[in-house]
Design brief:
The chain is of the alpha/beta class and 213 residues long. Helices cover 44% and strands 19% of the residues. The protein is globular. This is Cytochrome oxidase Cu insertion factor, SCO1/SenC/PrrC family.
């Protein structure tokens, strides 16, 4: 009897030590339920596969997003600048067309108001005006005075033309604003048909669900 009892006890101990097949399946299911939506969202966003025709975005999606990390800009001192370097930020890249005339100035004003309304989150966003030729001292001074958080950068005319072509959309004007994600991809485009409230709605949602370092 004692031998039988010992054998029974040993069998129970072995069963307890052995992983349960059901427990393993449940663990895999939990991990999959977390990872699969993230992977699916990444594939949909960066490839356009499965993208629904109706979205909650106010801007026009670029499908696929345009990688501008390899484009070299220059700052006011002529030093090279790559947007993928440095602290990760969301960026508004303003493309003025032939010159920064009335439509460009309106976009600058709209983006400035959005930047102000972001309040404490404003540091996570940067605004840049891209020009093909250097601005005059008077133009730069006016922009610094009216748009103190605006960064002025240059790009060679042929590179700027290529960027315009890569981000061209049928219903978006040549003078436009590109929303650049933290990884350096142009993902949405806006023009003066979009209101400041629409820009603000998009960027607030993106800031809410994106990381901050």
């Amino acid at each position: 009897m004692s031998q039988i009892s010992q054998n029974s006890s040993a069998g129970r101990d072995a069963s307890a030590a052995k992983p349960s097949g059901i427990g393993t399946i449940q663990g895999v299911s939990v991990v999959a339920s977390v990872l699969l939506p993230i992977v699916a969202a990444y594939i949909v966003f960066y490839t356009g596969v499965g993208m629904p025709t109706g979205t909650i975005n106010q801007g026009e999606l670029l499908q696929p997003p345009v990688n501008i990390n390899q484009l070299t800009f220059t700052d006011g001192d002529g030093a090279p600048l790559q947007l993928g370097e440095g602290h990760p930020k969301w960026r508004y890249l303003i493309l003025p067309g032939a010159e920064c005339a009335a439509e460009c100035e309106q976009l600058l004003y709209t983006s400035r108001q959005v930047h102000v309304r972001l309040g404490e989150k404003a540091d996570r966003v940067e605004r840049l005006l891209v020009t093909a030729t250097p601005l005059t001292d008077e133009e730069q001074e006016k922009l610094r005075r009216e748009h103190p958080r605006l960064r002025i950068v240059q790009q060679p005319p042929e590179s700027l033309l290529e960027l315009q072509q890569q981000t061209a959309l049928a219903n978006i004007a040549e003078t436009k604003l590109l929303l650049i994600d933290q990884r350096g991809f142009a993902m949405m485009a806006y023009d003066n048909h979009h209101s400041g409230n629409e820009l603000l709605k998009d960027i607030k949602r993106l800031l809410k669900y994106s990381y901050e370092k």
